Amino acid sequence: MAISLDKILAQHAYHHPLQPAVSFNDEHFNYQQWHQKVDEIALALDQLGLSKGDKLTLILPNCVELLALYWACARLGVVVVPLSPLLQDQAAINLCLDADSECLICVDVRQPKLADMCPQQLRILSLQDLQSLLMEVAGEQLPKTKVTSDDLFNIVYSSGTTGLPKGIMHTHGIRAMYGYSFTQAFGFGRQSVALHTGSMVFNGAFVTMLPCVLNGGHFVFTPAFDVQTVIELTKRHGVTHTMMVPSQIISLLDNPEFDAQTLPSLAMILVLGAPLQLHYKQLLQARFPGRFFELYGLTEGFITVLDNADAAANPKSVGCPIAGSQMRIVDSQGEDLPAGEVGEIVGNGPLLSPGYYGNPELTAQTFKEGWLYTGDLGYQDDKGFLYLVDRQKDLIISGGVNVYPSDIEEVMVTHPAIQEVAVIGVAHERWGETPIAVVVLKEEAQGDQEPLAEQEPLAGQEPLAEKILQWTNARVAARYQKLSAVQVIASMPRNVAGKTLKQELRQRFAKHT
User: Fold this and answer.
1) pTM
2) Confidence class of residue 357 from pLDDT cuts 50, 70 and 90?
3) First to last CA, the chain
4) How many whole angstroms separate alpha carbon 421 and alpha carbon 296?
5) Does domain 395-508 have CATH number 3.40.50.150?
6) Are 478 and 395 in contact (CB under 8 A)?
7) Can you tell me the distance from the alpha carbon of 95 to that of 103, in angstroms, rounded to the nearest whole number?
8) Best CATH choice for the domain 314-393 from the list 3.20.20.80, 2.30.38.10, 3.30.70.1230, 2.60.120.200
């Protein structure tokens, strides 16, 4: 498809200039104002000498400038490389070099140290430097740049929790297809209002932002996730579409205002990033009948969607491939497996990345003959609905038997004291590995404990942990699923996308047995 993102804002500014475009805190822009702001920032980038194909790294929290820089880069054909603001300085510099970045823009407080550390060829600017440039270029004209669908739009780095981060490439054409594909899947239109409360450097942000902007809708985003903020902004702006990771949905379900009577404008609540357990799906369906959607997918580009029409009949599924996509389940030799058999999920489609930046070997290992090998385990039913069994890296092999953590987690989330749970495998002398559960308790189950340090075990909860252990082991389906232990902590470790970092939990509790 011969389409790029560079002229979309100009079209909306011409046809619907007063239509609300972007809101962040107390800053609000219609499409005319937003188009003007983006063009001003594009002028500043041009003044820096950045041009089509150059790489610009951003280490910024959610802010107006971050979103405007995305679109300014699209305007010039500059490749944007967003990095998590949680990254340490040296790790950030390493990824800048990996991406061949010419320039890095960060918050003011980080600029001096990053500038001292970086090599000479990498220029480091603060947001204050950017504002100074904006004053210098006021009134000037942008150069004409031809941007095509095959030009690189951005490089998104994986979290790197199981190895070195990988730079996943997306072209303008792929990002445009995000807009078209998710418009079709989620029903976006010009009157849509999308609320985004997670990090804008997370690839999932594009799942709602691009279809919203493509259709000329109103995109609302926040500095960070907060339950009361979600409820207040949904009421204020008439939010129609929102996207959450499971931990955010679980927090919202604790608030009685989070229901269809209080928030009648909500037409779509999308869950992605990790599977949402059936218990919470059912609670969400009860609160918002017919609004629940679930997305399974990788930044590399294979996506399935369980939409609101199929959710009630297939609640344990993560849906079907999006339009124009294909899916297979294969064994260790890459041979197709029949319906009902567990294997690796393999897929392709219009969102497929061309590969990993500067890493042809890994690209060849992951993308084979047009198919993405996800490394995730699942099976499909006779109607082609996908059932996600577990991440391959999370699989526990105990005494030669495959133990899927998600099977145990589905049981445990129904315990009245448990807020969140992560089942992991730890080393065991006899069985090789054994499953243990790490849980976060609901507030009312914590008793009169003193405030807890982040991720520290809850003192005095050993008896409750033992009760949860016994309760779980009495309910799991098979002997090999029985837990060896339950550990109680104050909060789960997460990455910038809000995903639970099981690798950190495995490292922390590696010597449990």
Assistant:
1) 0.85
2) very high
3) 55
4) 20
5) no
6) no
7) 12
8) 2.30.38.10
